[in-house]
Write a structure and sequence with these properties.
Radius of gyration of chain A: 28 Å
Largest interface: A-B, 43 and 47 residues
Helix content of chain B: 40-55%
Order of helices and strands of chain B: HHHHHHHHEHHEHEEHEHEEHEHEH
CATH architecture of the largest domain in chain B: Up-down Bundle
Distance between the termini of chain B: 60 Å
Largest sheet of chain A: 4 strands, mixed
Structural class of chain A: alpha+beta
Helix content of chain A: 10-25%
Order of helices and strands of chain A: HEEEHEEEEEEEE
Number of strands of chain B: 9
Number of domains of chain B: 2
Strand order of the largest sheet of chain A: 7-2-10-11
Structural class of chain B: alpha/beta
CATH architecture of the domain at 40-50 and 79-166 in chain A: Sandwich
Distance between the termini of chain A: 70 Å
Radius of gyration of chain B: 29 Å
Oligomer: heterodimer
CATH topology of the largest domain in chain B: Cytochrome Bc1 Complex, Chain C
Shape of chain B: elongated
């Protein structure tokens, strides 16, 4: 074959290769979120109460334990599930029950949710139950906020103080 | 369907690059080449990259803009070579599938390639994370949220990227380590991947290496890789320039729950890994060694393309140093060892011809019988004996003046058979049909046959053989017209020689 034609064909092949590489390396652009919306992230990690309360050991029971294993209470490991609800302007957006982590259900339970809301003024309320109570909530918090377009608003929980943090 | 598409593309690229440099014949080697470009450029970038999360973006900006002439181009090369790696790896997988080079004893390269494919993505996605721009922010949040759909972590790892106050350098440093060690592990897997390939093709031919290298360099200069603004975990990235080669799976998270997407990804990888057995191939019996005829010369060991033969200490007390031993798990029954064996000759004067190494399904005795039967079936006129590889596509091309004898690979035919056919006047010419140059179905058959015919590799075609009566042609399986043209051309050449010879004889008289 004519070497000139072969050269042209090779140059075309390399050019197409470069075009394909260059184009799909960043295009077409992907629209991840609507610019007029704000995004709320709810992330709660909390260690719930135990399924059965701890039993206080008598001095005799403590003495019967090995010296390096002595403690004042006997506790079963399993913990209760964590129930969470989040309202935006009175409408419940998140209703979730999370199992405690760990093979023995003895670790902290976590809830992670992300959702979009129209930008503007909103009242966000969050409730959490970590005990065996049949109704009602152990922790509650709410905030009135003005969400700007394209912003993340996070709702977290600080176990040390028992407060919800809105940011 | 896939084979037809590849066949057409290969034929087109043959015209542009020639068979020897056709990129489709070198996809695996190009993968290695792009890997080394990515690794080399990565080492240079790491010199200037700051692994702290607060300084990472600034260091990448320095790389891109302040030192654009070297580090900036290197960054672009790093990205485009990574993208090119994905392209050639995906094409490599599809092409090997279309050629059915995954079942039977081919399975090893296939199943070791599957985790390598997964690791390519781990490396690439991790790389996008490190730039810590808006795209990195999106990748980090989407990846951690996706990982959190697996029951692996007690506390969601997406919490690390909740907002700018939760961002810590430790997790980021972990990503840097993953981005360094995942490619090292991938390199190890790539090495395992080619373990059953003797003389594995890990370097593309120089023209192809230069061509693709220059292409990547020009692309880096004309369309440099840029960051997409610093990450800010308090704001939502809205529009992003995704690298679709690596990140195409992420937009699917908008429509498919993360858990289901994991099922698709791992289910897909599992199916890919199991494909060699869906259904299993009927593997032809492996080559067997006949110790009575093996002198331990080691030619079969040197020529086996799949490292299926080893030379072991002699076990039968004969006065040779070694004997050939076949690893049946590696043997592809290609017959290249038979073609290399000095005892695989039709001239031997024994009651039953047995070579030192044989394919049980196609013993050398049978090849001799087929040759004699084909010769006996010729009518008046020209006689062309065609030894054709089963995979090259020449088997369906026939003429009144030619007889085809099919073998697993053309290099299974020892050169002595060519000598035999011509010296015993069994044919006017011998036509050897093999796969395209550099693209032998059994990897090295075309190369060994070329070297044997040229007298550069044992066993040689004897000097006494008139080369003008031998033709070794190489085309692709879908090029039946080329095969026909080659055979017709050879026939015309033989006729012309015969005419010249008879004219010469007449002149002499």
């Amino acid at each position: 074959m004519n070497s000139l034609l072969q050269g042209v064909m090779q140059a075309t092949a390399y050019a197409l290769f470069a075009l394909t590489l260059g184009y799909f390396a960043s295009m077409p652009s992907y629209r991840y979120a609507d610019a007029n919306l704000a995004t709320v992230k709810l992330s709660l990690t909390h260690t719930t109460e135990r399924v059965k309360p701890c039993i206080k050991l008598t001095p005799e029971q403590i003495a019967a334990l090995a010296a390096n294993m002595r403690h004042t209470e006997s506790c079963e490991r399993e913990r209760l599930p964590l129930t969470v609800e989040l309202d935006v302007d009175g409408q419940t957006i998140v209703r979730s029950t999370a199992r405690p982590s760990g093979l023995w259900n003895d670790g902290p339970a976590s809830v992670y949710e992300r959702f979009d809301v129209p930008a503007g003024k909103h009242t966000i309320a969050v409730r959490m139950r970590d005990s065996a109570r049949p109704d009602g909530w152990d922790f509650e918090g709410s905030v009135a906020t003005d969400l700007r377009p394209g912003h993340y608003f996070t709702v977290t929980f600080k176990p040390a103080t028992g407060e919800f943090l809105f940011r | 369907m896939l084979r037809i598409l590849f066949g057409r593309a290969e034929a087109l690229f043959d015209r542009a690059f020639g068979q020897q440099n056709n990129p489709f014949s070198w996809l695996g080697a190009l993968g290695w080449y792009f890997f080394w470009i990515v690794a080399g450029t990565g080492v240079y970038l790491y010199i200037f990259f700051d692994t702290g999360i607060t300084d990472a973006y600034a260091s990448v900006e320095y790389i891109t803009h302040d030192q654009w002439y070297l580090a900036g181009i290197t960054r672009s090369l790093h990205r485009y070579a990574s993208d090119a790696l994905i392209v050639v790896v995906v094409l490599h997988v599809l092409r090997e599938y279309s050629l059915d080079r995954l079942r039977g004893n081919h399975f090893f390269a296939w199943i070791t390639g599957v985790p390598s494919l997964f690791l390519v993505y781990i490396c690439g996605i991790g790389g996008y994370w490190l730039v810590w721009d808006r795209l990195a922010q999106y990748v980090a949040v989407a990846t951690t949220e996706w990982l959190d759909t697996l029951p692996l972590f007690g506390v969601p790892i997406a919490n690390n990227f909740l907002n700018s106050t939760t961002l810590g350098s430790r997790f980021f440093t972990l990503m840097v380590f993953i981005h360094i060690f995942a490619p090292l592990f991938m390199l190890f897997l790539m090495w395992v991947h080619i373990q059953r390939h003797a003389q594995a093709k890990v370097n593309p031919p120089r023209p192809l290496a230069i061509g693709t290298g220059v292409t990547l360099l020009l692309l880096s200069l004309l369309h440099p890789a840029l960051s997409q603004g610093p990450a800010n975990l308090d704001t939502v990235p809205t529009s992003l320039g995704l690298d679709w080669y690596y990140l195409a799976v992420y937009p699917l998270l908008d429509v498919i729950p993360g858990g289901w997407l994991w099922l698709v990804v791992f289910g897909g990888l599992l199916v890919l890994g199991l494909m060699p057995w869906l259904p299993p191939a009927r593997q032809a019996p492996a080559a067997v060694v006949s110790l009575d005829n093996c002198n331990g010369c080691g030619r079969c060991f040197e020529d086996c393309p799949f490292s299926a033969i080893s030379m072991e200490p002699r076990s039968d007390g004969k006065g040779y140093d070694a004997e050939a031993a076949v690893n049946v798990d590696n043997c592809m029954s290609c017959g290249l060892c038979v073609g290399a064996c000095p005892t695989a000759t039709p001239f031997r004067r024994t009651t039953e011809i047995v070579a030192g190494i044989e394919l049980p399904d196609k013993p050398i005795r049978k090849l001799r019988e087929d040759t004699l039967a084909a010769a006996a079936s010729f009518g008046d006129g020209q006689r062309i004996l065609v030894y054709a590889c089963e995979h090259c596509g020449a088997n369906g091309v026939a003429g009144d003046n030619s007889r085809i004898i099919s073998t697993p690979c053309v290099a299974m035919v020892p050169p002595s058979f060519v000598d035999f056919a011509l010296s015993r006047d069994l044919a006017d010419g011998v036509f050897l049909a093999g796969c395209a140059d550099g693209d032998c179905f059994y990897r090295l058959g075309d190369r060994w046959m070329t070297e044997r015919l040229a007298g550069r590799r044992d066993p040689y075609l004897r000097q006494r053989v008139d080369r003008s009566r031998v033709c070794f042609a190489q085309h692709r399986a879908n090029q039946s017209r080329r095969w026909q043209a080659s055979i017709d051309g050879f026939a015309a050449s033989l006729r012309s020689q015969a005419g010249d010879a008879s004219a010469g004889e007449s002149a002499g008289e």
